[in-house]
Amino acid sequence: MKLYYSPGSCALAAHIALCESGLPYQLDKYNMRTRTTEDGSDYLAINPNGYVPALHLDEEDEILTEVSAILLYIADRAPQSDLAPKPGALPRYRAIKWLSFVATEVHKSYSPLFNRAATPEWKVAALEKVKTRYDYVEDQLKRRPYLLGENFSIADAYLFVTTTWAKPVNLDLSPWPHLKAYSEKIAQRPAVIKAMQEEGLLQ
User: Fold this and answer.
1) Where are any strands of DSSP class E within 23-136?
2) DSSP E strands: which ranges in the chain?
3) What is the pLDDT of residues 166-186, one digit of tens each?
4) Strand (E) or helix (H) holding 179
5) Assigned CATH for 90-189
6) Superfamily name and number for 2-81+191-198
7) Stretch 68-96: mean pLDDT
8) In what order do the strands lie in the sheet with 36-37?
9) Which pLDDT band, with edges at 50, 70 and 90, does 39 fall under?
10) How far apart are CA 18 and CA 192, in angstroms?
11) Cα 11 to Cα 51: distance, rounded to the nearest angstrom
12) Domain residue limits, the chain
């Protein structure tokens, strides 16, 4: 498998999942300004939508896009890693619920904060929405150490990545002590450290 990524983007969640899974993988860095990969290939020929992540599946010779789908694919390819509940059981749908929540309510709320074209008013509204969504997450993390219970999952990988975006937009996580502690705990996982080092995010 080959993961197309941009450092620190939501592709980091897929990168973390790959490191947690133990599956072999390659990386190809995407330059958002030139829309090319490290070897100069046209990224739009790989993913016409022009964003990451994208995962090249060797056996199928297919490109899989959308971070939630990629996370589930990785988890299912490595069931021994317990990164997602088994299909057909209620916990599986809880995992999908959290992936959807992070993608549509947290991730998308951050997007205007990194958009140079966004107006100040838009950014203020987006930041308030992030805070509201973190209020909900904080309440959930008071009850359990991870989103799905006692064990780390792909949903945690995705939520963790959003917490790494707080500092660049000057969002202090202190009002959410459980979320802050959760993020700091996940940051110490060997797979997370490995992924962040490979993306040049750690010295």
Assistant:
1) 26-31, 36-37, 54-57, 62-65
2) 2-5, 26-31, 36-37, 54-57, 62-65
3) 999 999 999 999 999 999 999
4) helix 177-187
5) 1.20.1050.10
6) Glutaredoxin (3.40.30.10)
7) 97
8) 36-37, 26-31, 2-5, 54-57, 62-65
9) confident
10) 10
11) 9
12) 2-81+191-198, 90-189
Q: Are strands 54-57 and 62-65 parallel, antiparallel or unpaired?
A: antiparallel
Q: Which of 9, 10, 18, 13 minimizes the C-alpha distance to 1?
A: 18
DSSP, collapsed to helix, strand or coil, labels residue 11 as helix
Tell me whether domains 2-81+191-198 and 90-189 share a fold.
Answer: no
Cα–chain-centroid distance for residue 152? 14
The Cα–Cα gap between 155 and 161 comes to 10
Q: State pLDDT tens for residues 92-116.
A: 999 999 999 999 999 999 999 999 9
Is residue 173 a contact partner of residue 180, using CB atoms and an 8 Å limit? yes
SS (H, E, C) 28-51: EEEECCCCEECCCCEHHHHCCCCC
